[in-house]
Design goal:
- With about 325 residues, this protein is of the alpha/beta class.
- The chain has a single domain (about 35-330), classed as NAD(P)-binding Rossmann-like Domain (Rossmann fold, 3-Layer(aba) Sandwich).
- It is about 50% helix and about 10% strand.
- It has helices at about 5-35, 40-50, 70-80, 90-105, 125-135, 160-185, 210-230, 275-285, 300-305, 310-330; strands at about 60-65, 85, 110-115, 140-145, 190-195, 235-240, 290-295.
- Strands 3-2-1-4-5-6-7 form a 7-stranded parallel beta sheet, with helices on both faces.
- Helix 6 (about 160-185) links the parallel strand 4 (about 140-145) and strand 5 (about 190-195).
- Helix 3 packs across helix 8 (about 275-285) and helix 9 (about 300-305) packs across helix 10.
- The radius of gyration is 23 Å and the shape is globular.
- The termini are far apart.
- It binds NADP nicotinamide-adenine-dinucleotide phosphate.
- Keywords: Membrane, Oxidoreductase, Transmembrane, Transmembrane helix.
- One of its GO terms (biological process) is lipid metabolic process.
- GO terms for molecular function: oxidoreductase activity.
- Belongs to the short-chain dehydrogenases/reductases (SDR) family.
- Pfam families: adh_short (PF00106).
């Protein structure tokens, strides 16, 4: 073999090995991705990062803790050894969640404080903060989880509903965060968590005001993260896809003051609420700036939207357009 031939063979061998290695790597990442229910950073944090147990002893205030994701998060963080503040409007449901934390999670009564709170009564937020500080003397983590979904077409939705959704889902958390932040800045320590949604990244037919309220959270909190970084305060935006909860029962409709009153069908492609809460606890423990937890195909679509926005928006018009046509023809409902 001549020297030129041996150099050629060496190069061919190198390129073949490199191509196969890259192909195997892409296939492995693809297989992990298609079988996972969260973004790849959160997936890695679950395997090689901190477990929720690193949060033991921290005081975590969860809004919307009377049901659904907030309730499940209370159990997940309670099991990790956190002390809890449970807030929402329905005090009897908060007391039920507290009792479950005592009976099923094995927490101590003095480690759980129930603070009834209406997120819309913003003038009460500073007083609620004082109540928590009087009991625990500190707030390590605020989880802004309370919120309501929506099902109504954009053109049929009254401006009052748009305003109500934005007041509750966006300004409510912003108001409570503003009330908590001075304490965290004084301590030079804290973690603000916001439960957004994949609808905070995507437009979806029938969820116009809701999607807007979640998109707005990203504007508020992505900016806050930069402003409080020097104060050692972390800001995390958590974005679930469809999850089993009471969200459809309490969702806004097109008319002010109405609730949708629909039940979720157990056969729907939704994440179980405990799984969602566990993934959220991992994201909080690892102080991730943002995390997505969702079944496929929604998870892939959020990735497409993030990294190939032009293509994703083109596809959304065509796929979303078909769904919209069916909704208008009454062939499917808005759920
Ligand atoms: N389920 C999903 O598919 C899904 C997907 C993505 C994001 N999310 C988000 O996850 C969060 C929790 O929703 P969920 O699915 O668990 O719904 P859920 O079961 O209906 O729970 C909503 C919680 O928010 C509280 N809440 C509603 N209005 C309130 C107010 N004015 N003041 C204080 N608390 C209020 C409710 O408590 P009270 O009624 O007792 O006040 C309840 O605890 C929401 O931010 C939602 O947008 C849900």
């Amino acid at each position: 073999m001549t020297e030129t031939e041996s150099v050629k063979n060496g190069a061919t061998y190198f390129f073949t090995v490199a191509t196969v290695t890259i192909a195997v790597f892409i296939a492995a990442v693809g297989m992990v991705f298609m079988n996972t229910d969260c973004d790849l950073l959160l997936w890695a944090a679950d395997y090689i990062g901190s477990s929720p147990n690193v949060l033991a002893g921290q005081v975590v205030w969860i809004t919307g803790a009377s049901g659904g994701i907030g309730e499940a998060l209370a159990y997940a963080l309670g099991a990790a050894g956190c002390r809890l503040v449970l807030s929402a409007r329905r005090e009897h449901e908060l007391l039920r969640v507290k009792q479950n934390c005592l009976d099923k999670v094995g927490m101590k009564s003095s480690d759980i404080l129930v603070v009834p709170l209406d997120l819309l009564r913003m003038e009460m937020h500073p007083e609620a903060v004082s109540t928590v500080l009087t009991h625990f003397n500190q707030i390590d983590i605020l989880v802004n989880n309370a919120g309501r979904s929506q099902r109504a077409l954009w053109m049929k939705t009254s401006l009052e509903v748009d305003r109500e959704v934005l007041e509750l889902n966006t300004l409510g958390p912003v108001s409570l965060t503003k009330a908590v932040l001075p304490h965290m800045v004084k301590r030079q320590s804290g973690h603000i968590v916001v439960v957004s949604s994949i609808a905070g990244h995507l437009g979806t037919p029938g969820l116009g005001s809701y999607a807007a309220s979640k998109h707005a959270l990203h504007g508020f909190y992505d900016t806050l993260r930069l402003e409080v970084f020097d104060d050692n305060i972390t800001v995390s935006l958590l974005c679930p896809g469809p999850v089993f909860s009471d969200a459809l029962k309490h969702a806004f409709t097109h008319d002010k003051g109405q609730e949708l009153g629909a039940e979720m069908n157990p056969t729907e492609n939704r994440m179980q609420v405990d799984r969602c809460a566990y993934l959220m606890a991992v994201a909080i423990a690892n102080k991730l700036n943002e995390a997505w937890m969702s079944n496929q195909p929604e998870l892939s679509y959020v990735y497409f939207n993030q990294y190939m926005p032009t293509f994703a928006k083109w596809a959304a018009v065509h796929i979303g357009g078909k769904r919209l046509k069916k909704i208008k023809e009454g062939k499917t409902d808005l759920h």
